[in-house]
Design brief:
CATH topology of the largest domain: D-Maltodextrin-Binding Protein, domain 2
Number of helices: 10
Number of domains: 3
CATH superfamily of the largest domain: Periplasmic binding protein-like II
CATH architecture of the largest domain: 3-Layer(aba) Sandwich
Number of strands: 15
Strand content: 25-35%
Largest sheet: 6 strands, mixed
Structural class: alpha/beta
Distance between the termini: 46 Å
Length: 294
């Protein structure tokens, strides 16, 4: 089954009647699950890389991009923080998706028949207790949905896959064991991005995401962030990463609660700009369901 046939089977809406949302990975990936949970009315379009997802929106092949940025167990997704500022896209939503891991196999297979399980190395590491308890050998695959597709094509009842229930649905596999992850809190945060920003929306809880580089003066970071404390703006995330592979150029990524038009947020951003050489607001959007309340 081709990638296009699989995605059409999972969401059989006429292309002319639906908008499109792009994600990275095979049909049945957890990013695909995020698309279905967040925008079930849209056609989900699989892409090979994060760059391909971004390009699909930029050139009009898709209306929205679904991009994972961090996982509660494994931290931030590599490369995403470098891609977002240069993407030319704008964050319009966030989504928190619970990652439930399931053991999938050919229809009619019994659990005791499965001797090996294939998946992305991260998921294999998250199910050590279950796999060890059942004496199942871990086999590293390229990704979760691709592993499910491989199991369906291989026709070997001794080989299972660790993936989503959506992957089982798409590739005609049976769920032998549900929610086998070692920790019950594993959640991935996704950002939904569009070609144009939307600053008009207002919700009880708004989020603003931006990147910045501080000026080369003593205590620049301390001074740049001081305005958020003095104006009572809650900063929920602050991360740094190097630019261009050097130790001398650092960019900061931040999430704050509030809207840039709120007086306290406006004052804090003005103070940030004074002590920064560059500030780029990536998006203003309502807080997603599942965002912790501090």
């Amino acid at each position: 089954m081709s990638r296009r046939e699989a995605i059409d089977r999972s969401n059989p809406r006429p292309k002319s009647m639906t908008r499109r949302i792009a994600f990275q990975g095979e049909p049945g990936a957890y990013s695909h699950q995020a698309c279905r949970e967040t925008h079930p009315e849209m056609e989900a379009v699989p892409c090979g890389t994060f760059e391909d997802v971004i390009e699909a929106v930029r050139n009009g092949d898709a209306d929205l991009a679904m991009l994972p940025v961090e996982n509660s167990t494994y931290g931030r997704v590599a490369d995403i923080h470098h891609l977002l500022p240069e993407s030319g896209l704008h964050i319009v939503e966030e989504a928190f998706v619970r990652v439930h891991i399931n053991l999938l196999a050919l229809p009619g297979t019994r659990l005791e028949q499965v001797k090996r399980a294939m998946s992305h190395t991260v998921l294999l590491g998250q199910c050590r207790d279950f796999l060890n308890r059942h004496g199942i050998e871990r086999v590293t695959g390229a990704d979760t949905a691709g592993s499910a597709r491989h199991v369906a094509e291989a026709g070997d009842p001794s080989l299972g896959a660790l993936a989503s229930e959506l992957a089982a649905e798409i590739y005609g596999l049976e769920v032998l064991a549900r929610h086998i992850e070692d920790h019950g809190h594993n959640t991935t945060r996704f950002l939904v991005m569009a070609r144009e920003p939307d600053l008009s929306r207002r919700a009880e809880r708004m989020m603003t995401t931006f990147v910045f580089q501080v000026r080369n003066i003593p205590a620049a970071l301390y001074k740049a962030l001081g305005g958020f404390a003095t104006n009572g703006v809650n900063m929920t995330k602050l991360e740094s990463y190097m630019l261009d592979g050097t130790f001398t150029a650092t960019q900061f990524y931040a999430d704050i609660e509030g809207h840039p038009e709120d007086r306290n947020v406006r004052l804090a951003l003005e103070e940030l700009a004074y002590f920064s050489s560059h500030v780029n607001v990536l998006g203003v959007y309502p807080a997603g369901r599942g965002r912790p309340v501090l």
